[in-house]
Amino acid sequence: MLGVSSNYPPPPLEEDGLYNQASGEGSASENFKVVVRIRPPLRRELQGSGLRAYQCTTAVESGDRNVILSENLQAVINQHGGITDLYNTYRFTFDCVYDQQCPQERVYRQSAQQVVLSILQGYNAAIIAYGQTGTGKTYTMEGAMEGPDRGIIPRTVEDIFTFIVNDPEPSSKYLVRSSYLQIYNEVVSDLLKPERSSLAIREDRRRGVFVEGLSEWVVRSPAEVYGLIQRGQSLRATGATKLNEVSSRSHAVCVIIVEKCTTPQQQTAADGGEGGGGWRAADVDASGQIIQSIKVGKLNLVDLAGSERVHVTGAVGRRLEESKKINASLSALGNVIAALTDRRERSHIPYRDSKLTRLLEDSLGGNCRTTMIATIAPSLEAFQESLSTLKFANRAKNIQNEAHVNEDVDQRTLLRKYERELRRLRDELARRSRNVVDKRALLVAEEQAKRAEADKLAALTALQERSREFLREKEEKRALELKIQAMQSQLLSGGGSSAVLTEVPAVRAMVQREANKVKEYYEARIRALEAERQDAEGHAAEVDRYKQLLLKQRDIMIALTARLNERDERITNLQEELDAYDRYQRQLEDQLDAKTAELISLRKAAVEHASGGAAGSRGVDPMALQSALGDWSLSQGGRGPAPGEQLAEMLVPLSIRPGAAASAAGGGVGPGRPQLVYTADGTAVDLQGPESLDVTPRRATAPAANWRPHLPPPAQDGTAAAAGTNGVHTGQTEASVASPGEVAELRAAALTAAKERSALQQILDSKVRVMLADIIKQVSDPHAHAAANGGGDTASQPQLLGRLAALEQLVLRVSEAIGSSGTG
Ligand SMILES: Nc1ncnc2c1ncn2[C@@H]1O[C@H](COP(=O)(O)OP(=O)(O)OP(=O)(O)O)[C@@H](O)[C@H]1O
User: Fold this and answer.
1) Shortest-distance atom of ligand 1 to CA 131
2) How far apart are CA 210 and CA 638, in angstroms?
3) Ligand 1 center to residue 362 CA distance, Å?
4) Which of 60, 138, 249 to mutate to test the pocket of ligand 1 (most atoms within 8 A of CB)?
5) Does the annotation place 317 within a ligand binding site?
6) Contacts (Cβ under 8 Å, ≥6 apart) of 741
7) CA dist., res. 122 & res. 129, Å (int)
8) How many whole angstroms from 139 Cα to the centroid of ligand 1?
9) CB of 131 sitting under 6 A from ligand 1
10) CA gyration radius for the chain?
11) Ranges for the Kinesin motor domain (predicted)?
């Protein structure tokens, strides 16, 4: 916020300015001024075009209000009568016309300054530069930032701040804010915050038309505003065209908002105030608060993009698109002006047809003091564009604006907010200052308290010292008294010694009594102490005992834990062994099945062969077969099934249930002992007898490779006893590790497994024997068999014998394996 204190001289106001400062709000027509500025010819124009030399088409008549535009200006000037009729010549009257040589300063002073400064009184104002491309709009609005070529914007900024600092009213306070935006291709963007684009234009009662999200920058000096403008200019869309090397391709609007706050002054006696001073009633509200006046003025400094004829500028591609957009928005502007100046009943004003007209709604026919500066070029090539610009400006002349002071009594006004904030901060500062004072006082008080404490301590120490001295003195005094007493008593006894005194019976008795008393006291005390000591000793012993007990318990716990661990490990091992045994058992079953199948096929082959032998009248030597089969042929002893019984074909892989197998496990192969096989329908058949048993078929699985049951080393003292063939054993050591239930369970499982194995062995034996017997029978009686089968070839009988021998070896090996696994 700017206070008013400076040595700057107040800005001089142009006497022939377009606005009369004293005229207040002025008439509606006074609030919209149109001026024309003709720029000097450019070098390019002076060189002429083609064969035609440069020709000036514009002239300003004296009085600076009329402009003549003619295709043959010289003829007009020379007043060649009818010749002028041959050429197009136009005369327009405006609020002011500036010729080619008019300096920037004059344009500003006459056409802009009053408008600009009116914002300090709370008016809205606008200066709009309109014209064909390359005619000097940007030059007029911006120009140079320094020197005589400074345009309207830099001069405006200077004047605003000069005015503020020269305001004679000491209670006036100002807040100046600035924004800078562009409309490029119908998109509104913030030139001071490039990331903010596609901004929306809104309107409300308090702010009028405004751009939502547009950044506003509080500025306190012209330099700050220049900084913003330069930043914005660097981002503004420009491009080189045929008519202008640096052509603005966007409409740019520099916004300056000034809030002015004035506080009424107290009246003095000289003012005629009652009681010789105080506030006027009008200056104070109902709550006794002084009413401040806040005025808000907004200035739009608009540099439009230039209209252009595309065939003249030769725009293509992106430039062409830009041109179309520029022309479209300028055409919308023309439509708005046409609607505003329509003499008929006020018709609809198409502000919303383009972003530009929407944004300039206040400036065109609204609450605003507006100056439109129409720029034209003087050359003959620009004649048509100059004519259309002058016609446009001439129409705009009729726009009527209703400007009024924007006095804001709304508490939301920024200036008020700042004031409130300032007040709050001042209060805060005062409060904190008070706090600082309070804290200092507290520190002093604390210091004093500490000192007092130290003093008190010193006083106490001194007192204690004095008490000790007093006691010492008292002791000494007492000792002295005793001494005197003793001396006196000696005196009383007439100078006799103490030994003499003790010889007096009464004294002796008294001394004895006293001595006894002392003795009793000390004896009692010693006794009590002794009792206490004994008590303590007893406690100590007890504690010791507890300690020992606890140590023992800990050792026991450790031992038990170790044993438990050991037992767990052993159980795991046993479990693993049982698993391995299971696998091995399944392997044996598989082997058994395989061999059984092989035997069947061999038997079939033998049967077929025997039939062939009969046909050839030659049989196998039974003795040779007998010797090849060895024990197998001998042990079957004619007990097997009759030839052709086809028993083997009925065999399937089998297993015996533990319960059922138990009965079969009691003996090996032999008469009277059951030999169980399963028939295809699942019935168990005892190969030794006809009765059926309760057994169930089980599927064989893959055999385990190198399993051997694990057996513990034999016990040295003979206490450990073998529990079975599966390696489970028990003894005193294990008994303390595995529970009896678990051991019994394991033992039962081992027993069952052994029985199963034994049963399997028996089955294998019996099956082999049955089949061999069948084969032998067929081979040794080839004729009978041949007769039964219709004859056959016996040429491969020796081969058959060889295979049988091999089979026998295999079977033997399997049996051995079963046997060895059983015995470990
Ligand atoms: N009054 C003047 N005095 C001297 N030179 C001028 C004047 N007006 C314009 N010029 C020069 O004319 C050229 C074009 O001016 P300027 O760029 O301001 O035109 P413009 O109307 O803004 O163009 P556009 O619409 O393409 O942006 C510039 O080189 C500028 O310096």
Assistant:
1) 21
2) 125
3) 27
4) 138
5) no
6) none
7) 23
8) 5
9) yes
10) 66
11) 31-399
**Dist. CA 115–CA 14, nearest whole Å:** 12
Provide the phi-psi class of 196: left if phi over 0, else alpha when psi is between -120 and 50, else beta.
Answer: beta
Domain map (residue ranges) of the chain = 29-257+293-396, 565-698+726-823
Q: Of 233-237, 357-361, 551-555, 592-596, which one has max mean pLDDT?
A: 357-361
Q: How far is the CA of 40 from the centre of ligand 1 (A)?
A: 9
141 CA closest ligand 1 atom index: 18
Residue 211 CA to ligand 1 centre (angstroms):
28
As a residue count, the chain comes to 824
> For the chain, how long is the longest CA-to-CA vector?
182
* Distance, CA of 472 to CA of 477 (rounded, Å): 8
Closest residue by Cα to atom 23, ligand 1, is 134
Is there a binding annotation on residue 637?
A: no
CB distance 135 to ligand 1 below 6 Å:
yes
CA distance 711 to 728: 7
* Sign of the torsion angle spanned by Cα atoms 666, 671, 677, 682: negative
Please indicate if the annotation marks 733 as binding a ligand.
no
Counting from 1 in the atom list of ligand 1, the atom nearest the Cα of 249 is 27
In the predicted structure, residue 612 carries a pLDDT above the cut 70: no
* 8 A C-beta contact, residue 34 and residue 66: no
- Does 394 contact ligand 1 (Cβ within 6 A)? no
143 lines ligand 1 (CB under 6 A): no
Question: Rounded to an integer, what distance in angstroms lies between the CA atom of residue 598 and that of residue 200?
Answer: 98
User: How many angstroms separate the CA atoms of 684 and 80, rounded?
Assistant: 148
Cβ–Cβ < 8 Å for 241, 319: yes
Q: Which residue has the higher pLDDT, 500 or 734?
A: 500
**731-781 residue pLDDT tens:** 333 334 446 677 777 778 778 877 877 777 777 777 667 766 766 666 666
Which is it for strands 238-239 and 729-730: parallel, antiparallel or unpaired? Answer: unpaired
Looking from the CA of 101 toward its CB, the CA atoms found within 13 Å total 3
Q: In the prediction, which pLDDT does 665 show?
A: 36
Q: What is the dihedral of CA 492, 495, 501, 507, to 10 degrees?
A: 0
Please report, as a single letter, which amino acid is at residue 711. Answer: L
Q: How far is CA 356 from the centre of its chain?
A: 43
Banded model confidence at residue 105, pLDDT cuts 50, 70, 90 = very high
How many CB atoms sit inside 10 A of residue 792's CB?
19
Exposed, middle or buried: residue 22 (CB in 10 Å: 0-12, 13-18, 19+)?
A: exposed
- Distance in Å, CA 559 to ligand 1 centroid: 108
According to DSSP, the residues that pair with 177 across neighbouring strands are 218, 257
631 pLDDT band (50/70/90 cuts)? Answer: very low
Instruction: Say yes or no: CB of residue 31 within 6 Å of ligand 1.
Output: no
pLDDT at residue 414, rounded to an integer? 59
pTM of the model as a whole: 0.52
Q: Is 82 annotated as contributing to ligand binding?
A: no
Beta-strand runs (E) in 75-124: 89-93, 96-98
Q: Are the C-beta atoms of 501 and 494 separated by less than 8 Å?
A: no
Structure tokens at 389: 């610009």
Only one residue has tokens 């309207």, namely 152
CA-CA distances (angstroms) from residue 196 to 181, 548, 673, 789?
A: 10, 87, 106, 110
Q: Which CATH superfamily is domain 29-257+293-396 in?
A: Kinesin motor domain (3.40.850.10)
Beta partners for residue 129, in sequence order: 303, 373
The Å distance, Cα 39 to ligand 1 centre, comes to 7
Instruction: List the beta strands (DSSP E) in 688-820.
Output: 721-722, 729-730
